[in-house]
């Protein structure tokens, strides 16, 4: 009976350690309903996969467009706007650069973000996919941040460690993380 209790407590501790931070910042003074055009800047890539930022950005733009709630500027238009505004690093624009950029491309909001993890993670013999992303939205009148959220999906689960397994494909994990971010945006 005691060994069963110890195993049950260990399993419960392992499951609770897998929970993810669901913090969201929303400026209560911002009218999010007035946002009709969004520019999504290139994402900063802190992962080992060189193309992770571009992949996640593409999925994010497609999912955002699929909501039908906003118009997302094409990537080429964003690139031309960053060059005309003289933004040295479009992954981390300053408030002044956001205001100047949005005046050029006529966007109501600018979204930036970063891919913190993207790819495989190993725990013992188990291998699984993981993604961690964070994004923030700037309003374009003053260049201040009005929304911020992050999402982490995937990773090696307790059952993967116990029985082995490969987890979900990276495409599915990416879609889940992006859907989570979009859900937090429209919440």
Describe the fold and architecture.
33% of the residues are buried. This protein is α/β, with parallel strands linked by helices. The chain has a single domain, classed as ABC-type transport auxiliary lipoprotein component (Rossmann fold, 3-Layer(aba) Sandwich). The longest helix is centred in the C-terminal third of the chain and has 17 residues, at 170-186. The protein starts with a helix and ends with a helix. It has helices at residues 2-16, 52-66, 75-85, 95-105, 158-163, 170-186; strands at 24-26, 37-40, 44-45, 71-72, 109-123, 126-139, 145-154.
What is the structure about, briefly put?
The protein is 40% helix and 27% strand. It has a single domain, classed as ABC-type transport auxiliary lipoprotein component (Rossmann fold), CATH 3.40.50.
Provide the descriptors you would attach to this structure in a database record.
187 residues; alpha/beta; Rossmann fold; seven-stranded mixed sheet; 6 helices; 7 strands; 27% strand; elongated
